[in-house]
Amino acid sequence: MTDASLINRYQLAELGALLAEPARAAILLALMDGTMRPAGELAAIAGVSAATASAHLKRLLDGGLLALHEQGRHRYYRLANDDVAAWLESMALPSATRVTPKPGARDAMLCRARTCYRHLAGQLGVALCEAWLQRGWLRAESDGMLLLPAAADALVHAGWPSASMHSLLLLRGRGCLDWTERRLHLGGPLGVAITSAMLDAGWLRRAQRNRALLPTPDGWRRLAELGVRIEH
């Protein structure tokens, strides 16, 4: 779902109403890490009753922001797709996060590196996108971003699994507006694949309490080899 299709299908006022309710915003924020969660868990996160959560979930489903996965008798909710996640990231979900463009120290870890649905965001995500564009490893086109063959040797030399390189070069990404940095990080299938590979390789690990991503010492070193540097 693109921004244009969202606005064409649902009135802008309705989208604003969906995000303006703190419980619905909390539900959406909880699903920004790419997980699927049952209604009871989302009700607890939002601080509302099961019946109230059910009404909120129905509105979010009808609004096209959530999708439902049924497994036997169990029902799980997730964000509808990457496009919805990117749109929510750019909107910053102020009613749920209470985060300003310059968050406080307690949010520093989240701002440094986090998941935006399933891809890398925050200072580290922006630094990766900008460094690889400057090096000519990424190319921005009208329909997205491509990883270029010039990046392959450098990535493999830095420890990237060579077996995954061919498929990586076939994927498209897109610029996703980062809500803390107000610049673009790399989203879309390419961004998801790169983040997944870094997690699998141990360059990043997930925080337990939120959607922050924690670069390991080895990850900092290898990312620096690839031109990705931030203060830490």
From TrEMBL:
Cross-referenced Pfam families = HTH_20
Q: Which SMART domains match?
A: HTH_ARSR (SM00418)
The record places domain HTH arsR-type at: 4-99
Q: Which branch of life, at top level?
A: Bacteria
Cite the PANTHER family for this sequence. Answer: TRANSCRIPTIONAL REGULATOR-RELATED (PTHR39168), TRANSCRIPTIONAL REGULATORY PROTEIN (PTHR39168:SF1)
Q: Any idea what this protein is called? A: Transcriptional regulator
